[in-house]
Specification:
Layout lengths: L1 H5 L3 H21 L6 H7 L4 H17 L1 H11 L1 H20 L4 H28 L6 H25 L6 H22 L30 H19 L5 H8 L5 H29 L1 H19 L5 H30 L4 H30 L3 H34 L1
Helix pairs in contact: 2-7, 2-8, 2-9, 4-7, 4-15, 5-6, 5-7, 5-15, 6-7, 6-9, 7-15, 8-12, 8-14, 10-14, 10-15, 10-16, 12-13, 12-14, 13-14, 13-16
């Protein structure tokens, strides 16, 4: 797999390598403290319900910039929409490190997420355009491999520095890392939008169909939007949301350092799976891997709820992480492939914005349910969403079959 990947176009290899390595460095710094962000909010005086709403606002901010980010990426290119927000995030992390209250910390992180949202479509397009259509799964799998490695290093580093006592130092270190990453990307990334006419790789830049925002509410894009909402909501309730850390401390009795550690150990399997998930999607199809990833993740996280020992929790998180990576790689490949039929930037931005906004609503709803019905509510919701992926994949495949039959009838 590595030999065939490295034999690609020089532009392709360099972009994927630079984006993967730079993102991994920033993610490692970020996740030295982000896993216990809910506990940091609590430390600064936020209640659990306020923390749930804070995570919802962070998710909403991550949504709002995605559609304009996609439009700007088609106008100005992918590279500026990746580099400039990285520098903006560096400044905002400095503010976050010095925040005296949880409200100011939240405002700074909302700004970071708005900047990250502007990058979202450009990330997907740059990776997809830097690989042949047949190798897009491997490109996204390689990227996720580096992210998985960062998710090992970050929590380990956080555990060493006792993150709840030293979170200001760790956030400040994230600011410095973002500044270095911005400079690295500015120097070494190549613009794929400008290279489309000369690049022999089949890119996503040539629009095959017209697109308006309302198109995401119908047809194949409509089903893709629903799948995107589910894919965004599941990790918001599990790995990337506040509920695992809160449940692990309040119910299972783990310390913040232990929580960071079992996330770090859990990411090891996810890293390995990332390398395998790309070829798996290329061999067995996006839809099948999407279903396996979603159901495997929510089942294992549901089993994790009954654990009381560190190693059992680490094992369940590891296996759940692995299936989540399969879900991410399969979905990234699916949305890149479908978006390539249109002007990719606005399609990816619109779907990303709507999916993230919708998933943002699920966090306070789950937080309210947690307060009323108990700490298992967020995970029950995630379990139901995971099972729904089976139905959604069947529907999108049925739609594609109907389209093919209509085209055959016209011929």
């Amino acid at each position: 797999m590595w030999k065939s990947w490295l034999n690609g176009h020089p532009l392709t290899n360099r972009n994927i390598f630079v984006l993967s390595v730079s993102t991994a460095a920033l993610v490692a710094a970020l996740f030295s403290w982000y896993r216990i962000l809910a506990l940091i909010f609590r430390e600064l005086g936020a209640s659990d319900l306020e923390t749930s709403f804070a995570f919802a606002l962070l998710a909403g901010a991550m949504a709002l910039g995605q559609y304009p980010g996609g439009i700007l990426a088609e106008k100005y290119g992918r590279k500026p929409l990746i580099v400039i927000p990285t520098y903006i995030a560096a400044v905002l992390y400095v503010v976050a490190a010095m925040a005296p209250t949880w409200q100011i910390l939240l405002l700074a992180l909302i700004g970071v997420n708005l900047a990250s949202a502007l990058q979202s479509a450009s990330f997907v397009m740059l990776l997809a355009e830097s690989a042949s259509p047949q190798k897009r799964g491997s490109a996204f799998g390689t990227f996720q491999f580096f992210i998985g490695f960062a998710l090992i290093v970050g929590p380990l580093m956080g555990a060493y520095f006792q993150p709840l006592e030293n979170y200001r130092f760790l956030i400040g270190f994230t600011a410095i890392t973002a500044l270095v990453v911005g400079a690295f990307r500015q120097k070494h990334l190549y613009e794929t939008l400008e290279a489309c006419e000369d690049n022999p790789v089949d890119t996503m830049a040539s629009a095959k169909k017209s697109f308006t925002f309302t198109d995401i509410l119908k047809g194949k894009l409509g089903w893709l939007l629903i799948i995107a909402i589910v894919v965004a909501s599941i990790p918001a309730l599990t790995i990337y949301g506040p509920f695992i850390a809160l449940y692990a401390e309040d119910v299972q009795g783990f310390t913040p350092g232990e929580i960071n550690l079992f996330f770090a150990y859990g990411a090891i399997l996810a890293t390995i799976v990332s390398l395998l998930a790309g070829p798996m999607t290329e061999r067995w199809g996006n839809e099948r891997i999407l279903v396996i990833g979603a159901i495997g993740h929510v089942l294992l996280l549901y089993v994790w709820l009954s654990g009381t020992t560190f190693w059992f929790a680490a094992l369940m998180i590891a296996l759940g992480y692995g299936f989540l990576q399969m879900l991410f790689v399969a979905f990234d490949t699916m949305r890149a492939t479908i978006a390539s039929e249109y002007q990719a930037g606005p399609v990816l931005g619109a779907i990303g914005m709507m999916a993230t906004l919708a998933s943002a609503l699920i966090v306070p709803i789950a937080g309210y349910g947690k307060e009323i019905k108990g700490p298992m509510v967020p995970f029950i919701i995630a379990f139901i969403l995971g099972l729904s992926v089976v139905f959604l994949v069947i529907k999108i495949k049925q739609y594609e079959i109907v389209l093919e039959e209509e085209l055959d009838a016209q011929v």
